[in-house]
Amino acid sequence: MSIEWNDKQPIYKQLKDMVVERIMDGSFAEGEAVPSVRQVAADYQINHLTVGKAYQELVEAQLLEKRRGLGMFVMQGARSSLTHNEQHKFISDDVPAFAERVKILGLDMKSVVERLLSIGEEI
Questions:
Q1: Are residues 57 and 114 in the same domain?
Q2: Which of 33, 67, 89, 97 lies at 20 to 30 Å from 110 by C-alpha?
Q3: Are residues 57 and 84 located together in one domain of the fold?
Q4: How far apart are CA 19 and CA 74, in angstroms?
Q5: pLDDT-based confidence at 120, cuts 50/70/90?
Q6: What global pTM score does this model have?
Q7: Residues 57 and 87 grouped into a single domain
């Protein structure tokens, strides 16, 4: 398995973000094991210490838990915690930036909101 790593961010952070995405989309279900450090290192051809650092940060964030002799598992509640955090980040960071972009482009906010609502109905 091959992946293109972004040079603008450390690989362990990119790997951490990948695991977070998989927890959020349900690919890594709560209570289930994630691939071992060695397996990930071999699959992506990266150092096992890099994988270990990404996993350790996820343990510290209480998203993964170590089970001695068994490996790493997604903690119960990890998905809802991530969803809550991402919702908060979206509302506090992305929405104001979006509104500013709408203003800069000279768009009418009401028509933008109407378009967003119509897209929401299509989904």
A1: no
A2: 89
A3: no
A4: 10
A5: confident
A6: 0.78
A7: no
| Measured distance CA(25)–CA(36) in Å, rounded | 20
Encoded tokens for 11: 């690989």
Regarding whether 51 and 40 lie in a shared domain, the answer is yes
Q: What is the pLDDT of residues 28-39, one digit of tens each?
A: 999 999 999 999
Range of the domain at 40: 11-76
Number of domains making up the chain: 2
Q: What's the rounded Cα separation, in Å, for the pair 108 and 22?
A: 36
Distance separating alpha carbons of residues 89 and 77, to the nearest angstrom: 18
Q: What is the pLDDT of residues 49-60, one digit of tens each?
A: 999 999 999 999
DSSP for residue 33: B
Read off the CATH number of the domain in which 50 is found: 1.10.10.10
